[in-house]
Amino acid sequence: MNEQQRVFLAISLCLAILIGWQYLFAPPPQQPVGAGEDFIATPKAEKESSGVAQTKTEKSGVAVLAEETTLNQGDKPEALEVQEKQVALQVKDLKTENFSLTIDNGLNVEGTSDKNILGLKKLELLKYKESADEEGERSRVNLIDKYDSGESRQALIKWHLGEYKSPRMEEVASSEGTLFRGQSAKGLTTNVLIEPDEESYAIHYTLSVLNNSLVTLPVDATLILALNQAESASSGSMMAAAGAQPMQGRCLLGEEIEEYDINELQEEDDDGQSGWRSQGNQKLHWAGIDRQYFVLAAAPEKPGSAKCSMNAYGEHLEVHVHFAQELIAPEGEWNAKFTLYAGPKKVERLEEVGKTLGSFVDYNIMGLPLGFIARPMIYFLNIFHGWTASWGIAIILLTFFVKALLLPVTIKSTVSMRKMQLLRPELDKLKARFGADRERMNVEQMKLFKEKGVNPLGGCLPMLLQMPVWFALYRSLWSAVDIYQQSFAWIPDLTAKEPFPFMAVAIGGLTVLQQKLTPTSVDNAQARMMMIIMPIMLMVFMIALPSGLVLYILVNSVLTLFQQLIINNMKITI
Q1: Which of 10, 229, 404, 457 sits at a 20 to 30 Å CA gap from 36?
Q2: Is 90 exceeded by the pLDDT of residue 388?
Q3: Per-residue pLDDT at 103
Q4: 47 against 416, higher pLDDT
Q5: Please, where in the chain does CATH 2.70.98.90 lie?
Q6: Which residues pair with 204 in a beta bridge?
Q7: Selection from 297, 302, 295 nearest residue 343 by Cα
């Protein structure tokens, strides 16, 4: 074999090796990536019934991100060299004196094929505990949405970046807080800066997208924040109370608060659609979930820069904040800020984050605004607790305080009822004389009342004044997180109904005694009927009410009984 033949053979072998290597070992070409799916969690049963196959596999521990190198082939390059980057799944633990949280950069959300979702997998309140379980253990309040599949997630952040896939974010060094950054294959940079407040129950978020796209076109960017909560997590003891409401999703739009519970959100309209979405250009001040004693809410820094929607799936309630859609020009940047409040349902704590967030606490009952009564009662209740260090004694002192305020009206009412009783013989005469002419009889009765200075409705006035106080106290205890799971004497939880209704039975007995001592203008048959029905009705109501409210009514009944004995010994004439 001569020299030329050896060179030709060497070249042939090199070509064969190169072609064989490319054929056997070269990576397959990348598939194009489509736009992201809607960010709505869908239950398994719904997905299975729809016949859509769900992918359950994911590369363990890493996600592949493509980084492009620039080719100078004009404004729209025909080909791009792609270099793969491995981004590990990460969790970041943060802790303040109020809560402990864990950030996860790869939460798996059903209903979307995108695994690159940043959110919280733990959000514990360090100063509050849940109700005791069957074994008597009490864990910290955890505002994470938990699913039967074992998934735990909260405050999910999902980017929609036009036709480009949202990158998985990884933690990078930052002097300002905890910063997660994602670098996409198309030159887009996403940043999420998370800064927990050391003194309040606020977590501050700063979000941004920088368009360094190799394709010189604007990028259509949208951000959705999802707050989730399972109704079972809010199954506080007062859920059994009469008139109790389930967990609610709430949004403050302009001056109006939109609120819906799970049952309302699952109802379908005439078009077969369920859930709720804000319409128009109303300013969104905050959106969140009312969990009875605790609040999970997001407040955008600039009201009006976002919209709100609510959905419910099974026992899970979802509230979404849709930030304004933006077209980000090449080399342009989009920024947004919001604060996540995760803490007790206390007006002063909420207003630390934002003035309007204090309106999350609602003191209305059946449309009646009772805040003007409830707020002073909460104020004095906290003062009395500061004196005694006991919420039970504070409720008793509050009862004395309210009773003292109503005492002048009560005395006047009781005196009026005594005078009505003394007028009974004359009223009977009028009834016998004008019984056939009811209009004339009513005229003569009112004339008699005026002559004797008796108000026939005076006996009802104290009850009418007490009812708003009871309703206001009930509504206050509904969200009084300071009394949550506080014990007193034999009562394990003042916000729960009594384990055995000792106080309810006592109130029923006191009601019978009070009726016997209270003067009445009704006939004997009516009095006997009321003496039987009223105590029974009160006992039934008391069994279902929170024990803190029942304690208030019990002490009030005892004071009323002694008050009645004193008034009965007064000399009253007409």
Answers
A1: 229
A2: yes
A3: 93
A4: 416
A5: 64-69+80-362
A6: 195, 339
A7: 295
Residue range 96-148, pLDDT digits in tens: 999 999 999 877 665 555 666 899 999 999 988 876 555 556 788 889 988 77
- Beta-carbon contacts of 57 under 8 Å, excluding residues fewer than 6 positions away, are none
Task: State which amino acid sits at residue 232.
Answer: S
End-to-end CA distance of the chain: 145
Asked whether 195 and 176 are in contact (CB, 8 A), the reply is yes
Asked if residue 188 has pLDDT above 60, the reply is yes
Number of C-beta neighbours around residue 163 at 10 A: 15
How much is the average pLDDT of 19-39?
A: 43
pLDDT above 90 for 353: no
Structure tokens at 457: 């409705």
Burial code (b: 16+ CB inside 10 Å, e: under 16) for 35-71 equals ebeebbbbbeeeeeeeeeeeeeeeeeeebebbebeee
* Max Cα–Cα distance, the chain, nearest Å: 149
Residue 134 CB coordination number (10 Å): 5
* C-alpha distances out from residue 273 to 206, 253, 311, 456, 462, Å: 34, 22, 11, 55, 49
129: DSSP letter: E
* Fold observed for domain 64-69+80-362: Beta-galactosidase; Chain A, domain 5 (2.70.98)
Q: Judging by DSSP bridges, how do beta strands 364-365 and 368-369 pair with one another?
A: antiparallel
